[in-house]
């Protein structure tokens, strides 16, 4: 961990300096990614800045200093979100907002969230250097606690901004140290009252734009630096339990068994096939299961598993949920066992308006990038803000699709091109 510029040097090694124009500086972006990477740096050269931690606040403070240097008016709201405002020619108009987050998962990467914050800030830096003033005011936002590593449930900053309706549930949250949500807020000079006060009149915001690494391989396979997000998938989580009969593995004939694990195995395989019957953006995953009694010589009598179902369209996502439940019933009957399920969560998908996608496509063509559309399977702050205002998202190519890992990487050329697209887009939506 001796190298202070361990990220910056690697980013600049293959950087094309011809991308430095219109006030945008790749060197500045690389330096800032590197500076933030040193905050909460782990032994594996990863990042450890969990939500509402000292490290997250330190990273926010660093960004706040850059905001002030760029000429932005800086404030924090009662949910811990950092906001820098560039006043427009007509400050009475709703503002354009862009940004992301600087918290991370434990031992995560250096681009997830951070790139979106620095891309949004770089637009303001470019305007400062070119003496440009937009018609609408422009706000760079750093949302608090997006990842959710502290409470196993994130997006707390963006939910605070829109006015979350489940505050009583948040009060029940505790971190691994045993501190509840309210105590953690207090440690950050915040409170339940301040969190409630963070609710903003979203009529003050015209739209929100977020730059984020893809966390997948589609752009890499296409050889494209950045892409247009068509929508953010809304997850539905189902807890499905198959109940058969536990029995002795040696004394129970094969034709006289009610094996819950065999039924669950068929279910898992069939669930994997269902999304293809819906559309290209639907997905379904069984990533967790428990087998009981879980003995080497015991026929499994009970299996509980969890199905994560997502799509960017609500009607097809819900249709897939129904197909999964129909499949569970069909399999339980064919194996002469029973089943039951619980719906653990269901979030509304956020499709992105076609006109916003088309405008992004025009901006990409203008900077020499082939427009490419792709869905977002992961949740983002844009998903929360998008419940109230129009959104747009730009994905940046991720090496090998790796994310939430010290190996997470995006080339500086790709990052800078995404900033050029973002800048043009924001200037066009005035």
Automatic annotation (TrEMBL):
Q: Give this protein's Gene Ontology molecular function annotations.
A: hydrolase activity, acting on carbon-nitrogen (but not peptide) bonds, in linear amidines; metal ion binding
Q: Which InterPro entries match?
A: Amidase_Cbmase, Bact_exopeptidase_dim_dom, Peptidase_M20, Peptidase_M20_dimer
User: What residues does Zn(2+) 2 bind to?
Assistant: 112, 147, 404
| Cofactor binding note of this UniProt entry | Binds 2 Zn(2+) ions per subunit.
Stored SUPFAM superfamilies? Bacterial exopeptidase dimerisation domain, Zn-dependent exopeptidases
Q: Which Gene3D superfamilies match?
A: 3.30.70.360, Zn peptidases
Signal sequence coordinates: none
Q: Which residues bind Zn(2+) 1?
A: 101, 112, 212
Q: Can you give the residue ranges of the Peptidase M20 dimerisation domain?
A: 232-333
Q: Which residues cross the membrane?
A: none
Q: Which cofactor does it need?
A: Zn(2+)
Keywords, ordered alphabetically: Hydrolase, Metal-binding, Zinc
The protein's matches in NCBIfam families, at most eight in alphabetical order, are given as: hydantase (TIGR01879), PRK09290.1-5 (NF006771)
Give the UniProt family note. Answer: Belongs to the peptidase M20 family.
- What is this protein's record name? N-carbamoyl-L-amino acid hydrolase
Q: Can you name the source organism?
A: Virgibacillus massiliensis
């Amino acid at each position: 961990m001796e190298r202070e510029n361990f990220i910056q040097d690697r980013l600049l090694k293959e950087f094309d300096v011809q991308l430095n124009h219109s006030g945008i500086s790749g060197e500045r972006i690389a330096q800032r990614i590197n500076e933030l990477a040193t905050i909460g740096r782990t032994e594996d050269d990863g990042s450890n800045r969990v939500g509402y931690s000292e490290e997250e606040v330190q990273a926010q403070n660093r960004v706040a200093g850059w905001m002030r240097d760029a000429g932005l008016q800086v404030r924090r709201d009662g949910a811990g979100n950092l906001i820098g405002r560039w006043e427009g020619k007509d400050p009475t108009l709703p503002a354009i907002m862009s940004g992301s987050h600087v918290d991370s998962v434990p031992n995560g990467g250096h681009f997830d969230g951070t790139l979106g914050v620095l891309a949004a800030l770089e637009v303001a830096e470019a305007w400062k250097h070119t003496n440009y003033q937009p018609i609408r005011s422009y706000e760079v936002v750093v949302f608090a606690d997006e990842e959710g590593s502290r409470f196993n449930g994130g997006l707390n900053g963006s939910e605070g901004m829109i006015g979350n309706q489940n505050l009583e549930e948040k009060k029940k949250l505790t971190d691994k140290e045993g501190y509840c949500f309210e105590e953690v807020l207090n440690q950050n000079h915040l409170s339940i009252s301040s969190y409630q006060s963070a609710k903003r009149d979203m009529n003050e915001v015209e739209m929100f734009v977020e730059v984020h690494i893809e966390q997948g391989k589609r752009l890499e396979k296409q050889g494209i630096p950045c892409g247009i997000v068509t929508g953010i998938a809304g997850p539905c989580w189902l807890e499905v339990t198959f109940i058969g009969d536990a029995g002795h593995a040696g004394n129970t004939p094969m034709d006289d068994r009610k094996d819950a694990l065999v039924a669950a195995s068929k279910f898992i395989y069939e669930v994997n096939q269902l999304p293809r019957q819906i559309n290209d953006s639907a997905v379904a995953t069984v990533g967790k299961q428990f087998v009981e009694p879980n003995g080497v010589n015991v026929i499994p009598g009970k299996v509980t598993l969890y199905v994560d179902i997502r799509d960017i369209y609500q009607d097809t996502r819900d249709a897939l949920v129904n197909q999964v439940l129909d499949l569970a019933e069909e399999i339980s009957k064919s194996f002469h066992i029973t089943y039951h399920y619980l719906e653990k969560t269901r979030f509304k998908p956020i499709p992105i308006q076609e006109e916003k996608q088309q405008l992004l496509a025009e901006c990409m063509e203008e900077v020499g990038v082939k427009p490419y559309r792709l869905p977002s399977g992961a949740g983002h702050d844009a998903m929360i803000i998008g419940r109230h205002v129009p959104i747009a998202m730009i994905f940046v190519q991720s090496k090998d699709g790796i994310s939430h890992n010290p190996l997470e990487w995006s080339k500086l050329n790709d990052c800078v091109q995404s900033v050029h697209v973002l800048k043009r887009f924001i200037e066009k939506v005035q």
